[in-house]
Amino acid sequence: MSKVAVVYWSGTGNTEIMASAVAEGIREAGGEAEMVSVSGFSADTINGYDAIAWGCPAMGDEVLEESEFQPVWDDCKGKLGSKKIALFGSYGWGDGQWMRDWEKECRDLGLNLASDFVMANDSPDDAAREACIALGKALA
Question: 126 FRET partner, CA 20 to 30 A, in 14, 15, 113, 118?
C-alpha cells in the first residue's frame, strides 16, 4: 500500500475540498492518504511518503500563495527526486496561468508528474471533484 501526502493551502476552503477528493481517490485505489496543511509539512517529511499531491490556489497575479505555501514548495522541490507528484488548486480570476507555470516548473526540474494537473474555478464542481479523485488514484 502506498502512503501519499496531500499537502495543501486553502484560503477559502475550495482547495481543501479538492484535497479531500484527492485523498478519497487515493483511498479508493487502496492507498493510505494523509491530508497535511502546508504549514505542517517540510523537506524533512518527504521521505515518509511514496507520493505527494500538492494543492495551492492562485493568488495575487496568478502565483502560488507566497507566505506559507511558496517557501515550503521552494524547500521541498529539489528534494523530491523521482517521487510521484501531482498538482491541483482553485482560482477565482484569470485563466489558470499559475497552474501552467507551476507545471512547467515541475517539468523543467524533471519531477515525476503522475497526472495532469486539476484546476477548479472557485468551488470545485462535480467534474473537478471527479478529476481530483482520478488524480488521487494516479498517485496511489
Answer: 113
DSSP class of 114: -
The model's pTM: 0.97
Determine the average pLDDT of the residues in 72-90: 97
Quick check: 45 and 80 in contact, CB under 8 A?
no
pLDDT over 80 (residue 1): no
Please report the domains of the chain, with CATH numbers, ordered by start residue.
Answer: 3-139 (3.40.50.360)
Tell whether the model's pLDDT for residue 27 goes beyond 90. Answer: yes
Residue 86: closest CA among 64, 48, 114: 114
- What are the helix (H) ranges across the chain? 14-28, 69-76, 97-108, 126-139
